[in-house]
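Lab notebook, bench 4. Still working through the backlog of constructs that have no structural model yet. Next entry is a single chain of 327 residues. Request: give me the structure tokens for it.
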Amino acid sequence: MKKLLLGTAIASLVTSAAFAETKVSGYLETTVGFSSSTTSSTADNSNPTDIGHEVSIDLSTSKELDNGMTMSAGFGVEDGTQTDQFLKLTSGGTTFAIGNDVTGVADNVSQEDFTPHIAQSFHDAAIGSGNIQGIETAHGGNGFYLIQDLGMAKVEYVYNPNTAAGNTTGASANTGRGTTTGSGYDLAIKGNFGVEGLTAGYGISKVTAATSSQTDQEGKGYGIKYAYNNFTVGYGVTENQDVNTTTSDDVTSYGIAYSVNDQLSVGIYEAELEVEGVATNEEYQSVQVGYDLGGMGITLGYYQVENVGGTSGTDGEKLELRTVTKF
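Model written out:
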């Protein structure tokens, strides 16, 4: 009788799952880039033109459960690797989730999220050998999420019990604690706070070290962005301290974008990386243009970095043409 009941329950679950709404989405990104670098001893070190591709496919499903809650689940495949799997249960404005990179949490308030980029951020464009980066967070591993939608803002929290367990950790696997990091958490708030066109946020992150003789990893991000008519301006700050380091690095970025019409946009951006104990800061500049063809977007970005590694005269630049097709 127990086996019969178990089999009936499983059959019922499979049958009900067939009525869940399933969606497939994704994108194809193609880049053509040319970069060069200079040092005090090398006037110009040009690299060959590179062509790159990035492919992502996302599958998701959602269903109203018998208890009135909404269940949603899914995962992505990026360049052949499974990533960003999640299971969410939502009631009203409250969502509980478990998974990997379910939402950016503190990463959503990194300095680059408040700079209105038309093409890619300095971090994503991987310009030269610059060291700019986003906020150090715990959300990239497998964690428990609590998300509260307040209407004017959204509060997000994630607890990662083992930051050594990444998105490829299999079901029922126990990888053990890592040698440098233990558990971690992120907490962030982001929204318009009742002001049309405004986006503001603040977030913190902490990852504990594996042993008492090591130092923790900490991150902080905050910023503001405002859109009015055809203009968007933004300013953001990210502060990081990596695990087992006593120095911190701060990134400040700001920019302005202008929509010429519904298809054409242009933008100018600057950023500065300040590393504790290094006298000279890395400085970044970018000019970007984007055009929407309706079904495919094309962007052209010129990126420049000066004083790489805090060394005057060590510079880099990159010109990148990028297309993004979503489906």
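Notes after review: The first strand starts at residue 21 and ends at 38. The chain has two helices and 17 strands. Flag for follow-up if needed.
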